[in-house]
Task: structure prediction
Amino acid sequence: MKISTKGRYGLTVMIELARKYGEGPVSLKSIAEDKNLSAHYLEQLAAPLRNAGLVRSVRGAYGGYILADEPENITAGDIIRVLEGPITPVEGIEEEEAAQQALWMRIRDVVKDVLDTTTLKDLIINDHKEPQKEYMFYI
Result:
């Protein structure tokens, strides 16, 4: 499973909104400038997040976006599903052999568990920890 820029940037927006939770609306332009991203692209991502009820927009000169719920109630899985669709490592597993189907479903379940148990609050708390080493797996 590969997360596209939609999912990655959408998660970035949501983390920034979680950091500012309770301080009022945050403009996507300010997030875009801070993270060196396209404000126009972030606007496109905000619409599905708003439609899913994860963020609310505030109009006006000091408007922007705020989380629709507390950071501990919004998971990475909520965000990724809205922007990327269902979490599945392989399309069309019905045609695979039973052993392969079982493997793909185990992988899916582990990924879903990580995404569904990681909240925005977890992400902003773990923000300052040392990054983990990357492992390269060859098959």
Q: What stands out?
A: The chain has a mean pLDDT of 88. The beta strands are 55-58, 64-67. The helical segments are 5-19, 28-35, 39-51, 76-84, 98-117, 120-125. The chain is about 50% helix and 5% strand.
